[in-house]
Amino acid sequence: xxxxxxxxxxxxALLHRLTGLNVKEFEVLQESxxxxxxxxxxxxxxxxxxxxxxxxxxxxxxxxxxxxxxLFMYGLRTSQPGQSQDIGTMHxxxxxxxxCQKL
Length: 103
Known about the structure:
The chain has 103 residues and is mainly alpha-helical. The protein has a domain at 22-44 and 62-103. It is built from five helices and no strands. Helix 4 (66-79) packs across helix 5. The radius of gyration is 14 Å and the shape is elongated. The protein starts with a helix and ends with a helix.
């Protein structure tokens, strides 16, 4: 089963069960997360001197929208913190933890 933010936002009770946040709280967090994700992840990758491909080249991520990434990380954090062994997931989880410390 694949849940995306546009699906979950239509069901506020489900969003609350997954994250502990209501829709308005999640949207405020998502706006800030989007800006931080772009600044800390996307921009360094685009400006890396060892870059081999142009923007848009390479493998596409499964979670394209920052709101979906945040929903996934928040759900992972509340359901099983630190249990995932996937390197990409752990990288996003680490960024999320750093982001939460800044709030």
